[in-house]
């Protein structure tokens, strides 16, 4: 039986009447996305039509999921909220704090030792507040959710940007910051601006070397890293129904890389097969009763241009494998063009490492298709030219592929099998030699390839592709190898060629596992004590942020004017910093150390206007805070792209930054700033970015009149006494302005408002 089956049945009981009413109010057929949105309104049955990209709407998600790196801060905030138990089904998954180095067994033992304090904290908090706890080694959060919790037509939020993975099972699954999760765990409404809708019509059928990963790599190439901002991407067509459920999950997962709110697919036979295979026949039985409500109305997919704000069509029969990168996941190159592109851009063509796994591509089908290439290499007598590593998505996947001989086949090629965890995908990779900073190329099946993300080396050129292409490129040792057309020379000097990959969608013998790694919470957690040592360097109880004093912010200094791409990796790095995710003051020492200063084109060196000297960003900001001087941060386009990590908002808030003024924001980061009581502002005129100078002092002229839809006026006083008046937009509504006034959204929850 599925987890929370009664909750799922209740959701399905409500969907038909709510969707029928929404269809009546909207006055036309509905997309799947609209059906899920309107059936999850906080008010219950819809009473009004909402305007896309304009109306803020309160929703009631069905569940919450947190990974260990973000769960620490989320649960510390939840403890501050003063509730006895979570209001909706919630889970915590320990997958981020396990470093890949030697192999699964030793790496997991090291993690359990080094992070014992954090794991014990998460376990005890989960036990106390009715939260399901998945132990270290159980698997990657999004694979676990897909295998156990996701269900067609549901809505969930998760404190990780790749929560969207559950769209592979027909959900609207949305990545959020921890404060948003606290709202839902506390029994409150969750607010979202009603999204725009992007339709992707898939015709034809995948064949040969082309995989579901290539669909999203192509979509990312089309839309770029910000093209999906504020939108839900809904996939449909014969190509959609022809691919596996986990393949759909891959596509939805990497939708985070185009800035999309989430992505989803309509309920179909592939989902039925997957639900049955993962022991959830009861969900299939319930879903089949309302199947028409779990996909778009027929007219929508017949005439999609009438119902979506943007429409993309991809013929899967003509699609070829893509290799995206380096340094950004939206730079797409078809495999047939890689030789030319690599030469033109001076990319290192020698592949040093091939890595398969992450929440994007660690399913049974992924592993079986990749191992089909490995088996061919062994049979053909080819010694791989690059090192190779895999991360199974869950203990259920690992146990099953071990049973079916897949792990043994990988190991014949010298593959390192890492823990069922995120590992290299999030910088948790102790890669030998990375500290030398040498220019090199790696290929992986992950989702992000920002500079320094995998191994900390800014000169590592990381390219994203499908698991089967990773295998082929790693074995050949060359980025410009095209397995569709090119041959290799085996150990006997013979010219050989790979056949297209093959893999089972689901294990023919079924899934199996001895210990999935799940810990159910106590029925009554009232007597469970959660202890955080005051001397801990890993965990720190939170204090409320101060409320706004009701006055204009004046005399503020410019901390940094960030130039170009500034992701959450640049604002709050992961990798070795993950160990401080539960200690706000300690992790604040990484604030903006990866951002490029527009005035000197260097990272982690900004001018301290108190001394005239240059220093590290956190140190300079701490000096301003000690002196009681407010500061602002200025940024470029799509500021805060990437992870949902709210630390990128909490760190500047903790250290005294008052406002972030940029050309445009990524959705989750803008919300995180608002939740923490920060001012998230955008230039009315983007060219004003160029007017801001290094020694500026900033005065807000009309913050006392802060109101929805009303621009704010900022005065930038330059060192020579001249001034520029710059207008700023914001997207705050009344309740969000209340967050700012109170000091944070959490302060209002704690006050019972």
UniProtKB/TrEMBL annotation:
Transmembrane segments: none annotated. It catalyses: citrate = D-threo-isocitrate. Its cofactor is [4Fe-4S] cluster. Its EC number is 4.2.1.3. Keywords: Iron, Iron-sulfur, Lyase, Metal-binding, Transit peptide, Tricarboxylic acid cycle. One of its GO terms (biological process) is tricarboxylic acid cycle. GO terms for cellular component: cytosol. Residues 34-477 form the Aconitase/3-isopropylmalate dehydratase large subunit alpha/beta/alpha domain. Belongs to the aconitase/IPM isomerase family. This is Aconitate hydratase A. It comes from Paenimyroides marinum.
């Amino acid at each position: 039986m599925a987890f929370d089956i009664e909750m799922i049945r209740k959701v399905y009981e409500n969907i038909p009447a709510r969707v029928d009413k929404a269809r009546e109010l909207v006055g036309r057929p509905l997309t799947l996305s609209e059906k899920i949105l309107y059936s999850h309104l906080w008010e219950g049955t819809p009473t009004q039509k909402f305007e896309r990209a304009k109306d803020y709407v309160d929703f009631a998600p069905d569940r919450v999921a947190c990974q260990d790196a973000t769960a620490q801060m989320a649960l510390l905030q939840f403890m501050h909220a003063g509730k006895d138990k979570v209001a909706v089904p919630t889970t915590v998954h320990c997958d981020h704090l396990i470093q890949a180095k030697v192999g699964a067994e030793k790496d997991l033992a090291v993690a359990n030792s080094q992070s014992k304090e954090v794991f014990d904290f998460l376990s005890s908090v989960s036990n106390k507040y009715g939260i399901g706890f998945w132990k270290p080694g159980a698997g990657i959060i999004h694979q676990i959710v897909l295998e156990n919790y996701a269900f067609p037509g549901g809505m969930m939020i998760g404190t990780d940007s790749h929560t969207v993975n559950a769209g592979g099972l027909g959900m609207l699954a949305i990545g959020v910051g921890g404060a948003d999760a606290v709202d839902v765990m506390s029994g409150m409404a969750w607010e979202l601006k009603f999204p725009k809708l992007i339709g992707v019509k898939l015709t034809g059928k995948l064949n040969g070397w082309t995989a579901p990963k290539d669909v999203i790599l192509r979509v990312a190439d089309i839309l770029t890293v910000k093209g999906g901002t504020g939108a839900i991407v809904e996939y449909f067509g014969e190509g959609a129904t022809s691919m596996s459920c986990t393949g759909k999950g891959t596509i939805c997962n990497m939708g985070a890389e185009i800035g999309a709110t989430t992505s989803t697919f309509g309920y179909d036979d592939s989902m039925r097969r997957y639900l049955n295979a993962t022991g959830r026949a009861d969900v299939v039985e319930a879903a089949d009763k309302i199947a028409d409500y779990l996909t778009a109305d027929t007219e929508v997919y017949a005439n999609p241009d009438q119902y979506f704000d943007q429409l993309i069509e991809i013929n899967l029969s003509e699609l070829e494998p893509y290799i995206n990168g380096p340094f950004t996941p939206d730079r797409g190159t078809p495999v047939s063009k890689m030789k030319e592109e690599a030469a033109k851009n001076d990319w290192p063509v020698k592949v040093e490492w091939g890595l398969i796994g992450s929440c994007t591509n660690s399913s049974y089908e992924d592993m079986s298709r990749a191992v089909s290439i490995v088996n061919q290499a062994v049979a053909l007598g080819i010694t791989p030219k690059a090192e190779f590593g895999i991360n199974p998505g869950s203990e259920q996947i690992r146990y099953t592929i071990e049973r079916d001989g897949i792990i043994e086949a990988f190991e014949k090629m010298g593959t390192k099998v890492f823990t069922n965890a995120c590992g290299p995908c999030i910088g948790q990779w102790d890669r030998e030699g990375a500290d030398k900073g040498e220019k090199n190329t790696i290929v992986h099946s992950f989702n992000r390839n920002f500079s320094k993300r995998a191994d900390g080396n800014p000169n590592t050129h990381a390219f994203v592709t499908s698991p089967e292409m990773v295998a082929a490129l790693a074995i050949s040792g060359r980025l410009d190898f095209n397995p569709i057309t090119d041959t290799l020379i085996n150990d006997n000097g013979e010219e050989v060629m790979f056949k297209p990959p093959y893999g089972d969608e689901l294990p023919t013998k079924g899934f199996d596992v001895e210990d999935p790694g799940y810990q159910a919470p106590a029925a009554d957690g009232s007597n469970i004590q959660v202890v955080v040592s005051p001397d801990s360097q890993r965990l720190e109880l939170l204090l409320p942020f101060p409320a706004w004093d009701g006055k204009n912010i004046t005399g503020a200094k410019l901390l940094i004017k960030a130039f170009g791409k500034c992701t959450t990796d640049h604002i709050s790095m992961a990798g070795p910093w993950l160990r401080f995710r539960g200690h706000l003051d300690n992790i604040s020492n990484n604030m903006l150390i990866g951002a490029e200063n527009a005035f000197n084109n260097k990272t982690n060196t900004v001018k301290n206007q108190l001394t005239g000297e240059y220093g590290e960003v956190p140190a300079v900001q701490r000096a301003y805070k000690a002196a009681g001087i407010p500061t602002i941060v200025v940024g470029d386009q799509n500021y805060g792209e990437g992870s949902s990590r709210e630390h990128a908002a909490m760190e500047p808030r903790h250290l005294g930054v008052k406002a972030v003024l940029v050309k445009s924001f990524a959705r989750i980061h803008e919300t995180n700033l608002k939740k923490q009581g920060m001012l998230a502002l955008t230039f009315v005129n983007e060219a004003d970015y160029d007017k801001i100078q290094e020694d500026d002092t900033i005065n807000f002229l009309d913050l006392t009149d802060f109101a929805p839809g009303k621009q704010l006026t900022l005065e930038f006083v330059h060192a020579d006494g001249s001034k520029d008046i710059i207008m700023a937009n914001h997207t705050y509504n009344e309740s969000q302005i209340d967050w700012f006034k109170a000091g944070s959204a959490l302060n209002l929850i704690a006050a019972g408002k």
